[in-house]
Amino acid sequence: MVVDLVTGPSGMPLAEVRDALLAGPDGPDRRAATILWLLRMPQTLTGALVGACLGVSGLMMQTILANPLASPYTLGFSAAAGFGAALTILFGGALPVPQWVLVPAAAFASTLVACAIIYAIAHFRGASPEVLVLAGIAVLFFFQSLQSLLQFMASPEVLQQIVFWLFGSLLKASWTSVQVTGAILVLCLPFVLRDAWNLTALRLGDANAASLGLNVAALRRRSFGLVALLTAAAVSFTGTIGFVGLIAPHVGRALVGEDHRFGLPMAALMGAVILVSASVLGKLISPGAVIPVGIITAIAGIPMLMGVILTQGDKR
Description:
This protein has 316 residues and is an all-alpha fold. Helix content is 78%, strand content 0%. It is globular and about 65 Å long.
């Protein structure tokens, strides 16, 4: 996080960053205080919080779906958020509310709508991994098609805004994003950690977990709702950021094993580390025009994904 605060297009030296950090947001050097406390600090903290949300969501998804390649986007949550954001960017100008409020709110609400659709299907057809995945794929393609329709309807200027949001970037972060994302993460974590033992038992399979007295269907529905909230908090302000929720759980499991009492906090930590590292890398590669973190995580995540696939193949 310190490295992320130091790097950036303004070219502030380390000593100046240190002085501005110690002086606080009301320090005498207004330029340094503005850059550090109004721009870099919210971006860094938002990156850490979003990474933590995606890491925890990814581990829960891989557990409840019994699929090592599952992520928070498997069930179409990111596509729903992208549709909500695109809809607001395209038509939100007619409303007397600023876009910086409308876009995150619409993305958050659309993610919860996707959650409600899949939850309703699971309620009537059962909360098995197969039903959840098939319902998620249907929701994913539905919202992706609506995204494509809105992009086709948009003018070149509006289309550029939509595409930039879909890239996934921390440049839109603010203290509001820190407060909202942090609040949702703090509210969800106690419920997530309460089910840590149950999630560990679920790794043994549905039959073994049920033999231990676990209500597997209720656990899946409960975990599914928490994943939806955490993913909505993550994508509402930054856009869609891929591979963090897929890779962070595997790194966490490699470090602490399968016990979710330790795996969930480690997945959160690894998600934060991965996303903040991607932010640093994006600034170093192109200092003048910061590369969105969504692009960095996608490029870096592909070889890591191939490694996971090969590892799972060896286990078979």
